[in-house]
């Protein structure tokens, strides 16, 4: 099995090494599919993960979710079924052996439909799952990734084959070790599904003052149950989650809209620019102006 996995890895990696010349994230002609490459290790960078499935073909990375550290290496997948703020650091990469991988966006409705179709074939889980997981990619799953990447050479087939391949990808995940994990996020009466709804509310209202009772009422949970389940899924409290959403959005505003730090801080819901600057420095490792300048120089 190891030889088969390595053969599939090489079949995906070699064409990407030829086509991916620049460091960073590259969009592709395949909707929802992105490629990434780095020729050197990086410092820890906070970011927001949308629901996604990633596959690492070469290199390794560390991810920090709240206070939980995860390690992610070649031939492993990273599954994120809900939006999450995380901090990531590439730890193994060089110009001769770059960090290379791909990501595919997850569609919640497609996932729910397939869970219904599969019924009891999907394993059950009694505890609230974490909102992120890392696992070894088996040959059947790697084969689907490979066929998706082959569509880059056959763009005329994308519209017909991509929906089928995306469904097969979800099928392999649901019947594999993380099947019960994924299933919990689709069940209307599960704690994981309720927390996913709370996360959507936080996304929509991140500029507004946090009102725990409103979130608990919307999720049909007690406030204590909300705190406990939210921590189980995200490794942080709702307030910490909202803070990271605000700070990441403020950084985006300063980088791409050219706004000053004080203006960006008010835009994302802060009332005190000095508090914003302190919390920004704590998350990104530098004050807003210095961080934005450093980021632009790296582009």
Automatic annotation (TrEMBL):
The keyword Transcription applies. PROSITE patterns: HTH_ARAC_FAMILY_2. GO terms for molecular function: DNA-binding transcription factor activity; sequence-specific DNA binding. It holds the Pfam family HTH_18. Residues 196-294 form the HTH araC/xylS-type domain. Coiled coil: none annotated. The keyword Transcription applies. InterPro entries: Homeodomain-like_sf (IPR009057), HTH_AraC (IPR018060), Tscrpt_reg_HTH_AraC_N (IPR009594). Keywords: Transcription, Transcription regulation. This is AraC family transcriptional regulator. It comes from Lacimicrobium alkaliphilum.
């Amino acid at each position: 099995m190891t030889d088969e996995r390595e053969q599939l890895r090489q079949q995906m990696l070699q064409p990407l090494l030829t086509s991916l010349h620049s460091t960073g994230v590259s969009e592709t002609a395949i909707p929802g599919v992105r490629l990434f490459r780095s020729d050197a290790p990086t410092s820890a960078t906070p970011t927001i993960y949308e629901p996604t499935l990633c596959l690492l073909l070469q290199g390794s990375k560390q991810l920090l979710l709240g206070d939980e550290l995860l390690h992610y290496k070649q031939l492993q997948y990273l599954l994120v079924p809900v939006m999450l703020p995380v901090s990531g650091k590439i730890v193994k990469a060089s110009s001769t052996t770059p960090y290379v991988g791909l990501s595919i966006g997850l569609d919640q409705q497609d996932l729910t439909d397939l869970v219904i179709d599969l019924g009891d074939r999907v394993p059950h889980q009694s505890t609230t799952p974490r909102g992120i997981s890392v696992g070894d990619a088996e040959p059947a799953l790697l084969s689907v990734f490979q066929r998706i990447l082959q569509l880059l050479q056959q763009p005329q087939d994308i519209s017909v084959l991509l929906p089928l391949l995306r469904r097969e990808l979800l099928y392999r995940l649901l019947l594999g070790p993380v099947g019960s994990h994924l299933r919990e996020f689709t069940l209307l009466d599960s704690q994981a599904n309720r927390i996913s709804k709370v996360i959507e509310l936080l996304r929509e209202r991140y500029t507004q003052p946090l009102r725990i009772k409103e979130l608990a009422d919307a999720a049909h949970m007690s406030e204590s149950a909300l705190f406990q389940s939210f921590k189980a899924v995200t490794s942080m409290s709702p307030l910490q989650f909202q803070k990271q959403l605000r700070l990441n959005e403020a950084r985006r505003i300063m980088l791409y809209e050219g706004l000053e730090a004080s203006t960006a801080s008010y835009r994302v819901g802060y009332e005190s620019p000095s508090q914003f600057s302190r919390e920004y420095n704590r998350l990104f490792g530098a004050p807003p102006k210095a961080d934005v300048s450093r980021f632009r120089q790296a582009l």
